Amino acid sequence: MSMPGVGAVVALTFRAAVDDPTCFRSSKRVGPWVGLTPSRNQSGERDVAGGITKAGDVNLRRALCQAATGMMNRGTSTWLRTWGAQLVQRRGRKVAMVALARRIAVILHRIWVDGTTFQSDTAPNPA
């Protein structure tokens, strides 16, 4: 709950849905497990990227999307909100909301595994 936009309901929904954080080798695997990745339809030379896959827990996906929408529309300014605003300019509001929800899921998992808190002033190292 140290992350802006993530309250008690989102945190508890995430904790109940994931249940065991060690079942993921990497925090990046949480996003596809929740169903926040684009679907692909490939055949021959055709490669179509569709909407999100909607795999996994629908309540968790809904809670993460609501947290992302809340973070984009109100609250304190953080590096994550700035990243979302830049994504809105490039790709549009709905795509940015799903991308931000996926990133929130990854960060929540990492926070849970490490036992740390959200650092609103510095972005994580991509290393």
Quick rundown:
The protein has 127 residues and is mostly helical. It has helices spanning 8-18, 30-34, 58-73, 79-91, 93-114, and strands spanning 38-43, 46-52.
Describe this structure in words.
With 127 residues, the chain is mainly α. Helix content is 53%, strand content 10%. The chain has five helices and two strands. Strands 1-2 form a two-stranded antiparallel ribbon. Helix 1 runs antiparallel to helix 3 (58-73), helix 3 crosses helix 5 and helix 4 packs antiparallel against helix 5 (93-114). The chain is globular and about 45 Å long. The model has no long low-confidence stretch (mean pLDDT 89).
Topology:
Elements: H1 8-18, H2 30-34, E1 38-43, E2 46-52, H3 58-73, H4 79-91, H5 93-114
Antiparallel strand pairs: 1-2
Helix pairs in contact: 1-3, 3-5, 4-5
| Strand ordering within the main sheet | 1-2
Number of helices: 5
- Rg result: 15 Å
Main β-sheet, in a few words? 2 strands, antiparallel
**Helical fraction:** 40-55%
| Residues in β-strands, percent | 5-15%
- In terms of structural class, how would the helical and strand content be classed? mainly alpha
For the termini, the CA-CA separation is 25 Å
- Rough outline: globular
Overall pLDDT level? 89
